[in-house]
Amino acid sequence: MNTAITAAADPSALMRIKSLQLRAKAVVEGFYNGLHRSPFHGFSVEFNEYRPYTTGDDLRALDWKLYARTDRYYIKKFEDETTRRCYLVVDQSRSMGFGSLEYTKLEYAQTLAATLAHYLTLQRDSVGLLTFDETIGDFLSARNRPGHLRSILVALSRPVAGKGTDIDAPLRQLAALVRRRGLMVLISDLLTPVETLQTNLAYLRSRGHEVVILRVLDPSEQELNLKAPGMIVDMESGKEIYLDPDAARASYREKFKRHQQQLKTIASSLGVEVFDMPTDQPIESALFHVISVQKRRAAGVNRAGMIAGTAAKSPVTRSAVSR
C-alpha cells in the first residue's frame, strides 16, 4: 500500500513523521489518491480550474477538449471563482498541549492546519494564519506566492508559550483586519465559554465571511477516561485538583454534552459549520469538510447569478455536441 495513504489513514503513523511539511504532504497525497471518482483522474488538470456545467451557464465557457476526454460537460471558472481567501485560526493555548495518545491535541491541530494550508496552496488559493493563546501570536495575511507556505509552517511549529485561552481577541482582530470576504477555519478545542464565541462568530458572519470550526478533542476528554483517583493539574490555571473519575464521570459527561450542544446551537443559528475532530481520527476528513463548505458556497454564488438573469440559455445536449 502507498505510504502516503497509510500515513493519512493512521494518525499515529502520521505523527511519527517529524517534519510538519512532510506530514501535510502525506495527507494531501493520500487524499488525492483516494479521489477515485474524480473526472480528472489521470489528467494533468488542477481541480480548481473547472466546475460541472449547470443549466444557465454560458455555453461559450464549455471546455470541449475536456468533454472529449471525460464525456462530461465542464465550465472554465472565472477569476472571481478561482481566487479564494482562507484564514486558519489556530489555538495554541496550554490546554491544547494535552494528549492521552502518542501525541497532543496541539500536534494534531498543527498538522491539521498545515494540511489545509498545503492543500489550499496547491489549489492556488490565498492562505493566511492567525495563532493565539491568551494573547495573539503570529498573523500572516492571506497570500499565494513562493515561500508563503513555508512561513505558515514555521509559525505553526512554534511550541506552546501561553497558558489560558482568549478566543475573543483573535476573532475580533481577524474581523477588523480582513476586509475582503473569505473562509475562516477555527481550529481549537473550544474549552471556553460559548457566549464570547457567539458574539465574535456573529461579527465575522456579518462581514460576509464563511466560518468553519474544526473542534480538536482528545478521546479521553470526551468520556473522562481516567483509571484511578488522584491529583490532576489544570493545564491553563496550573491548579491541582483531586479527582475521583468514577464519582465525577456522570457529571462531566453531562456538562460536556451540554457545552457541545450549546456550541452547535449557536453555530447553527449563525450558519457556521462545526465538525468534531477527535485526535484518533484521520486528518484527511477535515479536507472533505472544508471542500464541502466551499462547494456549497460556490453553488450559492451560481444560484445568485442565475437569479440575476444568467439562466436564460438552454442546457447542453448531446445533439448540440454533434452539431
Automatic annotation (TrEMBL):
<feature type="domain" description="VWFA">
    <location>
        <begin position="83"/>
        <end position="264"/>
    </location>
</feature>
<dbReference type="InterPro" id="IPR002881">
    <property type="entry name" value="DUF58"/>
</dbReference>
<dbReference type="InterPro" id="IPR002035">
    <property type="entry name" value="VWF_A"/>
</dbReference>
<dbReference type="InterPro" id="IPR036465">
    <property type="entry name" value="vWFA_dom_sf"/>
</dbReference>
<dbReference type="Pfam" id="PF01882">
    <property type="entry name" value="DUF58"/>
</dbReference>
<protein>
    <submittedName>
        <fullName>VWA domain containing CoxE-like protein</fullName>
    </submittedName>
</protein>
